[in-house]
Every structure is written in C-alpha cells, then in structure tokens.
Amino acid sequence: MLEFLRGRDVLVAGWGVSGRSLVEPLRDIGARPVVTDSAAAALAEAAELGVDVATSVELKEADWSRFALVITSPGWRPDSPVLATAVAEGTPVWGDVEFAWWVDQARIYGPVRKWLVITGTNGKTTTTQMTHAILRAAGIASVACGNIGLPILDALRRNPGPQVLAVELSSFQLHWAPSVRPEAGVVLNVAEDHLDWHGGLDAYAAAKARALIGRVGVVGLDDRVAASLARKSKARRTVGFRVGVPADGELGVVDGKLLDRAFTKAAILAEAGDISPPGPAGIADALAAAALTRAIDVAPQFVREGLIEHKVGPHRSAFVRELAGVEFVDDSKATNPHAARSSILAHPHVIWVAGGLLKGAHIEDLIEEVADRLVAAVLVGADAPVIAAALARHAPEVPVVELTAGDDAAMDDKAAAGDETSKTAAAEAMMARAVRAAAGFASSGDTVLLAPAAASLDMFADYAHRGRSFAAAVHTLEDGDIGRRL
Q1: Beta-bridge partners for 354
Q2: How far apart are CA 278 and CA 99, in angstroms?
Q3: Cα 439 to Cα 376, 432, 434, 485, distances in angstroms
Q4: Lower CB density within 10 Å: C or N end of the chain?
C-alpha cells in the first residue's frame, strides 16, 4: 500500500506534534518529507533538523506532480488553501492517523497491532486511560496514544512494541482517517462541539461514527445522538452501555455493580464505588473501557483490577482544596457545555466559574438544566457575555459577575499587542479575581467549580494552564475570603 511513496516527496502540512512524528517513518519507507506551516518559526525549526520545507507562497507556484501524498495535521480544515489545492491537483490527502494505520498494516515496525479506538465529545482521555489500565492489569503490552498526547507513529516505533493500542481520536482525526478499522471502537457521546470546523452537528456526528466500522462497535446509550449511531454502525457487531440496568447485549449497572451482559450471560466487572472519577460520567467511561477490553476477551477480573488502579488525571473534576467547608474543584477540561453539565450535576450547590470560547456550541439547554444548582456564576473570557445573557434568560435569580479587564487594563493592552508574558500575567490575574469573587458567594457545603463550558485559548495557553491558574488562585485564599462579597 505504501510502495507508491518510495522515492517520492510527501508534503507534511503542519509542523506540530503529529507533523514531527511523520518524518522518520516517511524516511523509513523511502519517501522524502517536505514540511509546510504558516509559522516561519516552525519552518525554521524543521529546516534546522534537516527536513525540506516549503512556504505557502512556494506551494502556489509548485509543480504538484512532485508530491505523491499530502499528510495533514488533524486541525487543518478541508478548505485550507494547501489542502484545497492538493485536492484540485489530484494529490491524495491523508491524516497522520490514516498514514499510521497503513504503516501498521504494512508491518513496517513489526506485527499488526489491535486498535481500540475511543472517541466522543467528552470522556475520551479518561476512557483511554482506563482502557490502558485494564490492558496493563491483564498483562497485555499496550500503550495509550493518539489525541491523548503520544502520536500513534511514535507508539508503533517503540521497541519492544505494543500488542494493543488504546487510541484516543478526535473528530478531526477521524475525518482524515477513513480507512481505520479498529478491533473495537466506542462513541461515548456526541454534543455540540467544533461545529465551526465541521459545519454542523450532523457532520460532526458522522466523523465520530467512523469509530464504528471495525469488528465491534460500542455506543453510549444514555446519549441520544450516540445511541442513534447504533443503527448506522458498520461494525460487524454493535453493543451499548448505560448507567442503569443493562438489557441483553449491553453493559450497565445493577445494585452498584458494573455488569456485562454483552460478551457473556452476566459478569460482574467492578464496584461503582471503586471508579475514579466518581459519579455517572466516570461510571459511563468505565463501562466503555470495559466494553472495549471485553471485546478482545480480557477477563472480568482484569477489568476490575484495571479500573481500581486507574485514577483520574489532572484538571478533570480534580479536588483542589477545602476552605471553611467550601470545596474548590478544577474541571478545566470541561471545554464544552456537555462536559460542564456532567461536572455541575455532580454537586448540589455550585458557584460556577465559566467562560472562554464556545466554538459555536449553544449554552441555553445546559443553563436550563442546571439552574437550580447554581448559587452564583462568575464569568470570564471572550464568550462571557453570551453565557451571561443565557443566564439572564433562563436563571434570572442567579447572581452573575462578568469580569472584564478593569484594573488589569494596562496589562491587557500589552497582551493585546502580542506580549506573551503580559498575556499570561493578565489571564492569571483575571482568574485570581474570578476565584476571589466566587469565594465571596460561597458558604459551607457549596462547591466553587471551574467548569468553563468553553475552550481556553482566548486567554490561556491551554486548558491545563487555565486549571493551574485556578488552583494557584484558590491556594491564596484565607477563611475570611469565604462569603466576603467584592
């Protein structure tokens, strides 16, 4: 399948983590990588490493017949000028995941691996980590890779190599990977996210559904859109999971125990109380991981051992501190309304710290559902006004603080001018003000919850930076700050 690349140039679109991972595999199969990127610094770095580069201007004048293939980073939209030109010139366009699939099928780095693919709007990373933990408990050589941070190609090149890949894939990656046929794949849930990239919910869901074209497909039955994909699944067998009593052919929960009725008549897999993170979202992720691993005949005892071993990662409903009876929780990873919903519903009385970039997602349904749990809301970021307006419509009794530059205006001016140090300082100062304002609404028994419902890149380097800023601000508080209105 990859012989057509030998001795040919391959254009790598995007010099990020996935772009870097392509260079050595391309060379290993005899192709010549050529990198393009909109950032001059990225091209300079690639050139320093001995990789040929091409600017967008050079590509406009290039003879495209020199390129056997374009491999794109997942975030590049199909209508990006480079990719649109490639299609017009008849040059095939693959994603890095598609290329990794064919590298694996060609046995470039050893025997073909079993791929367990995890996708969904929320819970992907937790489910991938749970899946990896179960595989480790079973003594199966495995690695968690893909959107979780480790490129699949880097995982394939490991020596000794894994037998099974727990592969987290985003909708972007699945869009560019039509050939991937996992041993088992799961769609956890589908809610509004990345609609600006895909152009609508139907296209977004269709990208997610590409996880359901292998031997076993798994869908979250408690999610309306994910459950509907069961009817469209192209997997040889499709099963479902629910946080409730499972029917035959499903996994679920009975009397506080996770139960498999899909791969056996009935097998207890774990105690719900042993799952981290606690609550319905964590249990759903555990059921999904159990389904994937049971699909490749991992015994129930190892499912239990792996789920007990797994502990939730940072910025995912992570407890930060208790002060004067108030809990502070960092769920910065809740980057869309669907994720924020699960987070808020886990607490009875919430002072909600939210805001950022909504990316086209609607906030109205979330606020209607959780309004009775909100003590107050403190909003920051570009789409804070949108959230504030929705709160005014659907939860008018909830006090709202919408923070703007205010006293940090001079610093924000520097940030707007492109000073990265000032931008970071301004973002962290804004978070400190938000935390102090939130603490002022709190009383014993409440939870101050960072669950932004939005992406972080308008203010922070990433969601982890946002979560660290929240935690740092929380640790500056004293007992007297609780209930002290600003």
Answers
A1: 379
A2: 37
A3: 10, 11, 9, 8
A4: N
8 A C-beta contact, residue 197 and residue 170: no
Per-residue H/E/C for the chain: CCHHHCCCEEEEECCCHHHHHHHHHHHHCCCEEEEECCCHHHHHHHHHCCCEECCHHHHHCCCHHHEEEEEECCCCCCCCHHHHHHHHCCCCEEEHHHHHHHHHHCCCCCCCCEEEEEECCCCHHHHHHHHHHHHHHCCCCEEEEECCCCCHHHHHCCCCCCCEEEEECCHHHHHCCCCCCCCEEEECCCCCCCHHHHCCHHHHHHHHHHHCCCCEEEEECCCHHHHHHHHHCCCCEEEEECCCCCCCCEEEEECCEEEECCCCCCEEEEEHHHCCCCCHHHHHHHHHHHHHHHHCCCCHHHHHHHHHHCCCCCCCCEEEEEECCEEEEECCCCCCHHHHHHHHHCCCCEEEEECCECCCCCCHHHHHHHHHHEEEEEECCCCHHHHHHHHHHHCCCCCEEECCCHHHHHHHHHHHCCCHHHHHHHHHHHHHHHHHHHHHHCCCCCEEEECCCCECCCCCCCHHHHHHHHHHHHCCCCHHHCCCCC
What's the token pair of residue 273?
């109380």
Residues 6+ apart with CB under 8 A from 427: 415, 459, 460, 465, 466, 469
The distance between the two most distant Cα atoms of the chain, rounded to a whole number of Å, is 70
Joined together, the tokens standing for residue 420 give 């990265």
Location of structure tokens 């886990």: 346
- Between the two ends of the chain, the Cα-to-Cα distance in Å is 65
Report residue 359's pLDDT band, with 50, 70 and 90 as the boundaries. Answer: confident
Per-residue model confidence as pLDDT tens digits over 392-449: 999 999 999 999 764 444 334 444 445 667 788 999 999 999 999 999 999 999 999 9
Measured in whole angstroms, the distance separating CA 213 from the mean position of its chain's CA atoms is 21
CB 131 within 8 A of CB 116: yes
Answer with the residue of higher pLDDT: 155 or 74.
155
Q: In what order do the strands lie in the sheet with 93-95?
A: 52-53, 32-36, 9-13, 67-72, 93-95
Query: Counting Cβ atoms within 10 Å, is residue 377 exposed (0-12), middle (13-18) or buried (19+)?
Result: buried
